[in-house]
Write a structure and sequence with these properties.
The protein has a single domain, classed as TIM Barrel (Alpha-Beta Barrel). The chain is 30% helix and 18% strand. It has 8 helices and 10 strands. Strands 1, 2, 3, 4, 5, 6, 7, 8, 9 and 10 form a 10-stranded mixed beta sheet that branches. Helix 2 crosses helix 3 and helix 7 runs parallel beside helix 8. The longest helix is centred in the middle third of the chain and has 16 residues. The two termini are 26 Å apart.
Length: 293
């Protein structure tokens, strides 16, 4: 049970057995959806897809969140450590290519022993830690040896941008050291037959009008990790939704020119592993249906 919770950078100190904190998450993990997810990066969702476990609650308030139904509303069923461990093993039996834990940070107190129990029960899936990137190094250190692949977002560099669109002016101040800690734990990406066995795969969603901030982030990544310290996913899938109508400057799809400028910079920087997306990825059809499970 998370008492005086300091799991995320908010460090709001909530006793979640009695009240929720900023992330609105209860004490026990609330699982909103479980699915074989075919739309993660190809190195993670071969075969039947990634075994995605979507948790409710989030420490960010992204105005363009495609998962806002669960990030900002607490949906789903509460699960104990034993139930979670059983769920993880069930996904392996269903043919999942990996265990894809989506936004698990509010529930680390239960998720960590659940991973341990599942592995003791024979689970051999790669564990993927899928996060918005707003993490503390202290929490991440508790995961060392349990996570095979970190899949963090790296959303913005500019504090004014992260404050306006995610309610977290200190986003980059935490996200960049967190990314370094993830890469320290996993080492350089290790592939076999196109599958990412271990490593850190940083996702960056290019936002309309903000390609210069994207380039600034890639420049920092190049300086910190060189050409092969991490893998990159440059996402073109931004789709106006949720609260973007309140922010007209981003209430549109990305142009090809904006996206191509960022991809070109990544190519010039020499990153060894870069995933890109087609224009068709900017579609609401790729958003999971959280009304069914």
């Amino acid at each position: 049970m998370a008492r005086n919770c300091t799991l995320c950078p908010r460090k709001c100190g909530a006793d979640r057995g009695a009240r929720v904190g900023f992330c609105r998450a209860p004490s026990l993990p609330r699982v909103a959806k479980v699915m074989l997810h075919p739309w993660e990066e190809p190195c993670l969702c071969d075969g039947k897809g990634a075994g995605a476990v979507f948790f409710s609650g989030c420490a960010l308030r992204c105005v363009f969140c495609q998962n806002h139904e669960i990030s900002q509303q607490i949906r789903g069923r509460e699960m104990t450590k034993e139930a979670l461990a059983g769920l993880f093993c069930d996904l392996e039996e269903q043919g999942a290519s990996c265990l894809d834990l989506v936004s698990p940070t509010p529930y680390l107190e239960t998720v960590i022993p659940a991973i341990q129990q599942a592995r003791e029960s024979g689970m051999r899936l790669r564990v993927v830690y899928n996060t918005g990137g707003y993490e503390t190094v202290e929490s991440l250190k508790r995961l060392e040896g349990l996570v095979d692949v970190y899949l963090p977002d790296i959303k913005y560099k500019g504090a004014a941008l992260s404050k306006r669109y995610s309610g977290a002016a200190d986003y980059y101040r935490f996200a960049f050291p967190a990314l370094k800690e993830m890469a320290r734990q996993t080492g350089s990406p290790r592939f076999s037959d196109g599958r990412l066995l271990s490593g850190t795969l940083a996702r960056h969603l290019i936002l309309p009008g903000l390609w210069r901030d994207s380039v600034d982030i890639l420049r920092d990544l190049s300086e910190a990790f060189g050409t092969d310290g991490i893998a990159l996913s440059l996402m073109r899938q931004f789709t106006p939704c949720y609260q973007t109508s309140r922010f007209p400057e981003i209430d549109r799809k990305l142009t090809s020119l904006e996206y191509d400028k960022v991809v070109a910079f990544a190519e010039e920087a020499g990153f060894q592993w870069v995933y890109t997306q087609a224009k068709e990825s900017a579609s609401s059809s790729f958003i999971p249906d959280f009304g069914e499970n």
